[in-house]
Amino acid sequence: MAVDVTPPLEAGAKFIDSYGPNRFKITDEVFEGSVIVFPDKVVSWDVADVSELTVDSFQAVFEANPTVELLLLGCGDKMMLIPSSLRQALREKGTPPDFMDTGAACRTYNILLGEGRRVAAALIAMPAE
Fold this sequence. Notes:
129 residues; alpha/beta; five-stranded mixed β-sheet; three-stranded antiparallel β-sheet; 8 strands; 20% helix; globular
């Protein structure tokens, strides 16, 4: 007997199906390049590397309604830290990110989404092979 362990999701929830070089498949739709995934929408994100990040890079997260309670930052093929000044600025905005590689951010996002959390994942696309 098989047991389905997929958590029930709200209708229209944006679940990350897969990721690969320069692409994401989210709720059966393919997105090229980096994205920010919210439970109810996906937005293109003009960031290719952690070194490009500024406070303004996260504007879509700050404007989210309802407010994001957890922000995951997928840094590409490996976890990297952002400068402490940027971490502090994001903390002051109430949205300090959890840093991890993009694959881990995708998996963590799906788990938190399944728990009904108001999560967002800012995902830097993995480099093309």
